[in-house]
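Design request, tokens follow.
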């Protein structure tokens, strides 16, 4: 096929300087690859939906009292309209020894491994357990809680406080119960229903799981109300111990948490895309500006502006296609790698390798469109330039005429340092564009560093709201703590204070709510009231509540509203008297008076937990006291759930640091990509000054001298970019922080981390030294003869 002269010229632009072309294509490809993050939610959702189908995840579940139902009564429940399938199982929460320490465990009963209509447990390896045997869920190993093997014995506390051992015979998993283990930081074990009942020391079942024929919210709620009514008739009332959890159609366990993390990654992707678009524009501007002399020659031999524009549009199109294709490959790889990493990290799910057509098409369109549009300003500017000016190699630089040039010449520096600084002022437009690009990368780095600082600060401030050291909870699916337990705990040496609490789940306007019923007045929890007031003694027995700020905004609830909430015994109406700006349970909390909760459950002494404050609050003393408290409770014949607040705090902060580290690493990757602009600038200066390099070599300049000159140029541009990037960084930090706060639905005062400025400088200088290695190597390797003959 015969190609036109201008088409051959466009193709030669790609081949003539292969290093520069490769760098440009790489820049476009990396910029395009970032859109792979947008495909990740769809890949994870597809994999999770297949697991929802495989594991037959329930449409609704609820914890119940110990139910001893006859086959006829079970059949009566299954005959309720809209019940497609129903599962009753036994669950027991307890403590298990892992080496010398004890940790939380949840024992899940499987009535029949061959017939599991709801929340199916899959045997991954080993064999089905029989009496005295368990399968261990791999979530414990993924989270580092316990690395158990077949044949290991697990020592657990039974429902009457003694100890017994179960033996591991394999691994099993269920999406629903794996996520339960992650939520409660527990080791999840699967056993027969008889084994669970024997360990829990109860006689029936305490978890009800249902599939609906009609999964709409209204139909689901009506069905659960009918099931509760039939069970209340059997038990005499209060058969549900929690509010039924109805799973919205199309969702899966733990989806909200990973969606929030994905939202953070989308923010990162937008930041990367913005930075990359500017980088492409800078790269294309440099590429076209470097050919100003050729444009002048084309004009001199009769080339029209239209021909010149068409030539460089075609060149930009070729670069865009090459970068788009490469970027599409990277985007698909990024989407799949991130999806598989997050899926395996949180759920042990590895989405199958997929090539989303929309992602590939979007990458190609983005690569071409951005590159062609980015080249328009530079092409237009060059075609409007007079022929004489275009043919002048130093035209447009204005070198030597400005005050800045004269000031640089007056500096008493070494010869090579002067050469490097003069390079900065020689091509002022190119240097300015590079400084802006570096400034953007600095701003991004400062923004992500401040976001990390803010996240840890918010977590610390949340834990600072607690004046308690140890939390004790009864097994929500077993028997309650005995009456008088609080007074008994107060007699333990080292206990300074014991506070009664009642913890339960409500539902407010379709949103699940963690509810703490606390004594009025002084409490171990220090509220941060944004509006209204905290609970007072006058509220005892009244239906009043304080709600978290995030819950108020999600549900549209305002101070003074009277709202209907779903409780385990039916709907109740509460007046909202305060809004608490705390991040406990991400701000989706509610606080009610303890006497009111006792009236709701119909027990004037009801308590299912205690907060204990230690006399000596050092971590070592609290750990010792926690063991003493647990030993005392075990001697009473109960298996409590324990929380040591300083350990929970460290675990929470470690998780926060892991997330912020991931985001910061992605931010640094964006910075490294953005610094390609610096590579472009140094590379173009090396090309522009090839003959000058030859002269310097002829008069005795060594390779180390040339490296030093161009290194000084690069570091100067980096420091100038850092100075410009500081105010941009403050604005970026504020914007990123507000975006993240909105994603997690909470408010918090913004504090800029001054240390991020100096960390950003150190990071930028380090990255600059690394990315400048290739152009510096090119400059040092030029031989004098080749350099002097360069055109």
């Amino acid at each position: 096929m015969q190609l036109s002269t201008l088409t051959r010229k466009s193709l030669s632009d790609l081949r003539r300087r292969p290093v520069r072309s490769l760098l440009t294509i790489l820049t476009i490809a990396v910029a395009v690859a970032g859109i792979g993050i947008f495909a990740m939610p769809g890949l994870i959702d597809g994999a999770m939906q297949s697991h929802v189908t495989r594991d037959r995840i329930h449409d609704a579940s609820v914890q119940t009292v110990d139910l001893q139902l006859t086959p006829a009564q079970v059949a009566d429940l299954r005959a309720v309209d809209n019940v497609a399938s129903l599962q009753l199982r036994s669950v027991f929460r307890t403590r298990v020894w892992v080496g010398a320490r004890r940790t939380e465990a949840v024992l899940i009963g499987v009535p029949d491994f061959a017939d599991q209509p709801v929340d199916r447990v899959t045997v991954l390896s080993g064999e089905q357990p029989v009496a005295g045997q368990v399968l261990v869920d791999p979530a414990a190993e993924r989270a580092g809680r316990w690395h158990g093997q077949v044949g290991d014995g697990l020592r657990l506390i039974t429902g009457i406080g003694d100890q017994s051992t179960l033996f591991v015979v394999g691994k099993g998993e269920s999406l629903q119960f794996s996520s339960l283990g992650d939520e409660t930081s527990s080791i999840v074990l699967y056993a027969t229903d008889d084994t669970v009942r024997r360990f829990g020391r109860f006689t029936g079942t305490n978890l009800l799981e249902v599939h609906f024929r009609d999964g709409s919210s209204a139909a689901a709620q009506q069905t659960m109300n009918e099931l509760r009514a039939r069970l209340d008739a059997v038990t005499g009332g209060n058969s549900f111990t929690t509010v039924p959890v109805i799973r919205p159609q199309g969702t899966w366990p733990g989806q909200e948490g990973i969606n929030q993390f994905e939202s953070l990654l989308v923010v990162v992707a937008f930041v990367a895309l913005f930075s990359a678009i500017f980088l492409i524009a800078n790269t294309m501007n440099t590429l076209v500006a470097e050919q100003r002399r050729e444009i002048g020659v084309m004009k001199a031999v009769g080339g029209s502006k239209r021909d010149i524009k068409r030539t460089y549009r075609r060149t930009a199109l070729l670069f865009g296609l090459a970068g788009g294709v490469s970027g599409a490959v990277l985007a698909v790889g990024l989407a799949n790698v991130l999806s598989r990493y997050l899926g395996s990290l949180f759920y042990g799910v590895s989405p199958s390798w997929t090539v989303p057509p929309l992602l590939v098409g979007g990458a190609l369109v983005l690569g071409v469109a951005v590159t062609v549009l980015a080249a328009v300003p530079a092409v237009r500017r060059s075609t409007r330039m007079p022929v004489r000016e275009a043919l002048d190699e130093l035209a447009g630089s204005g070198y030597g005429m400005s005050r800045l040039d004269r000031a640089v010449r007056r500096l008493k520096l070494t010869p090579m340092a002067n050469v490097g600084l003069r390079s900065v002022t020689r091509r002022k437009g190119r240097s300015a564009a590079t400084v802006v690009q570096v400034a953007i990368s600095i701003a991004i780095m400062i923004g992500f560093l401040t976001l990390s600082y803010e996240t840890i600060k918010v977590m610390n401030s949340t834990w600072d709201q607690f004046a308690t050291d140890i939390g004790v909870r009864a097994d929500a699916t077993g028997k309650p703590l005995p009456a008088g337990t609080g007074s008994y705990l107060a007699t333990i040496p080292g206990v300074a204070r014991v506070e009664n609490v009642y913890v339960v789940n409500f539902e407010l306007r379709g949103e699940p709510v963690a509810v703490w019923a606390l004594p009025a007045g002084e409490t171990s929890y220090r509220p941060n009231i944004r509006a209204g007031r905290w609970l007072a003694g006058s509220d005892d027995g009244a239906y009043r509540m304080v709600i978290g700020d995030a819950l108020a905004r999600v549900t549209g609830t305002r101070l003074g509203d009277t709202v209907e909430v779903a409780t385990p015994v039916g709907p109740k109406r509460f007046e909202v008297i305060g809004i608490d700006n705390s991040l406990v349970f991400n701000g989706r909390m509610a606080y009610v008076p303890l006497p009111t909760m006792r009236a709701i459950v119909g027990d004037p002494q009801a308590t299912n937990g205690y907060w204990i404050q230690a006399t000596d609050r050092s971590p070592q003393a609290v750990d010792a006291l926690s063991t003493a408290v647990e030993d005392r409770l075990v001697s009473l014949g109960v298996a409590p759930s324990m929380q040591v607040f300083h350990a929970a705090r460290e675990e929470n902060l470690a998780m926060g640091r892991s997330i912020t580290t991931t985001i910061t690493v992605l931010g640094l990757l964006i910075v490294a990509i953005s610094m390609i602009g610096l590579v472009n600038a140094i590379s173009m200066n090396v090309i522009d000054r090839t003959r000058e390099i030859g002269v310097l070599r002829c008069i005795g300049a060594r390779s180390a001298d040339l490296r030093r000159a161009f290194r000084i140029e690069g570091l100067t541009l980096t420091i100038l970019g850092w100075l410009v990037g500081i105010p941009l960084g403050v604005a970026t930090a504020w914007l990123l922080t507000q975006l993240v706060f909105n994603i997690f639905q909470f408010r918090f005062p913004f504090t800029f981390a001054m240390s991020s400025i100096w960390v950003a400088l150190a990071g930028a200088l380090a990255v600059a030294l690394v990315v400048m290695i290739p152009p510096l190597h090119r400059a040092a390797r030029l031989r004098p003869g080749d350099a002097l003959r360069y055109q």
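Comment from the thread starter after seeing the answer: thanks! Residues 54-255 form one domain.
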